[in-house]
Amino acid sequence: MQRRIIDFLFFGNIYIGVLAVLLSVETACQLNLPLCPDAYYVLLFSLTAGYYTYAYSWLPQQYQSQNPRAIWYMHHKQLVNVILVGYILLAIISFTWLIVQYGNRLQFIETDFWIILAMMLLSGFFYYGILPRSFFNLRNTGWLKAFTIGFTWACCVSFMPVFVSHWIHGTVPNKEIAMWFFLKNLMFCSLNAIMFDIKDYEDDTNRELKTFVVQFGIGRTIYFILIPLILLGLLAFCLFAWRSKFPLPTFLFNLLPFLLTFFIILSLNKSKPLLYYLIVIDGILIFKAICGILSVWIVTK
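RE: above sequence
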């Protein structure tokens, strides 16, 4: 029974929906923005969880894989359809509420915000292969895959709270500071995606998908790609913290996820089960969000 609940939380993508909400709250705290309306967080949760559920629900009947998540989807098709319908209904209701309440303010959103939103939506549509095969699938472009995922997630949790704050409250953060924060999250999310590629090493090799892990091997990916990426993310964070004039406790709290990520990266030399990646590696982002929120909350109390 306990294992069924865990499978439902992670394979049903509830966990990843909560992750998106927490990272978005962190953005509001770190950039000193007002929190979005509750309906927005419901919309974000349902769209994120529904997106990943929809992507896996398209597995063909003859699909063969040892991936536990793919097997779970094949064995629970009816449940998956019910979950997906629930996410869609939540998204429709929350989106409708936002439009009814604040739709008249959309005309005041600056053009560059719409451009970034369009780029995010395009990358989201193309990267998971949820469109027909005739369309370009960024997810199958090898090394670009991780950065496409990272860009989509960074836009979702770093840009969208800024977009909604601008839309509803008319507030815009310092754009240079927001850029450094976005780059930090871009590096973090791209790093996370490459770490997930390690679990897909055998499948990606069989599909001749030239990810970093397939091209360089697990060891070289860890030492020559993952570690340099985390250092770039740390640099972006330091510039963000400096421009934001973070007090020392805030800086140290935000430093903890980088240290945790470094040690987890080193642990990936040994084979790990899928749930390890879903719980621990996605858990890094949850830990990051909690540290980011607490770092601001503690200082302001």
